[in-house]
Amino acid sequence: MKILFHGCCGPCATYPLPDLLKEGHQVYALYFNPNIHPYTEYQKRKQGFDQLASHHGVSVIAEVPYDPATYFQGISFRESQRCRICYQLRMEKAAQTARKGKFDAFTSSLLISPYQDHDLIKEIANNCADKYGISFYYKDWRPYYRETYTLSKELGLYRQSYCGCLYSEWERYRTKNGEG
Fold first, then answer.
1. Nearest-angstrom CA–CA distance, 128 and 159
2. Is pLDDT above 80 for 112?
3. CA–CA separation, 127 vs 121, rounded Å?
4. For residue 45, with 0-12 CB atoms within 10 Å meaning exposed, 13-18 middle and 19 or more buried, which class applies?
5. Are 81 and 48 in contact (CB under 8 A)?
6. Domain boundaries in the chain?
7. What is the fold of 2-176?
8. What's this model's pTM, rounded to 2 decimal places?
9. Cα 106 from Cα 96, distance rounded (Å)
10. Span 16-37, pLDDT tens digits
11. Are 4 and 41 contacting, i.e. CB atoms less than 8 angstroms apart?
12. Is-cis flag, bond preceding 114, omega within 30?
């Protein structure tokens, strides 16, 4: 199959991307993550993702400019639903891009993380697939999550310490400092 692979970062893609290639798929990558904050963090993650894609000979297509306003407008006054909205933004862009590029399916590196809501990602991605007439390729890569540490270290990829959005960073530091 010709698959569009949405990547959230290099480390999370270290297992799924070569796995898709090993299965014999023709894979192209998409980096679309308007949720990542601040811009310097976005750049580090993008650079790591591009480095990994290049390492595996995979083209990163559909260069999308960094626009966090899209994310903040989507979640304003709906902060408790931020993950749902974030998944929706990213899966919608992947489905749109896959349809436009005449792909057979799309998938995402988000599916490797045990910290992401798999059922919600699957639900949203399947809805986007139906909306755009493109298949969503689901694979549960969570059992291989620990391997991403080793693989990303071997490749010298930047490893982040929070999901990416301002709220996840705030929650991380708030918890470390013993607040709330």
1. 29
2. yes
3. 10
4. buried
5. no
6. 2-176
7. Rossmann fold (3.40.50)
8. 0.92
9. 10
10. 999 999 999 999 999 999 999 9
11. no
12. no
Q: Which residue has the tokens 């304003």?
A: 76
Q: Which two tokens stand for residue 39?
A: 């811009």
Q: Name the token pair of 174.
A: 């708030």
Cα–Cα distance measured from residue 115 to residue 130, given in angstroms and rounded to the nearest whole number: 26
Cα separation of 86 and 75, whole Å?
A: 8
DSSP the chain: -EEEEEES-HHHHTTHHHHHHHTT-EEEEEE--TT--SHHHHHHHHHHHHHHHHHTT--EES-----HHHHHHHHTT-GGGHHHHHHHHHHHHHHHHHHHTT-SEEEEGGGG-TTS-HHHHHHHHHHHHHHHT-EE-----GGGHHHHHHHHHHHT----SS-SSHHHHHHHHHHHTT--
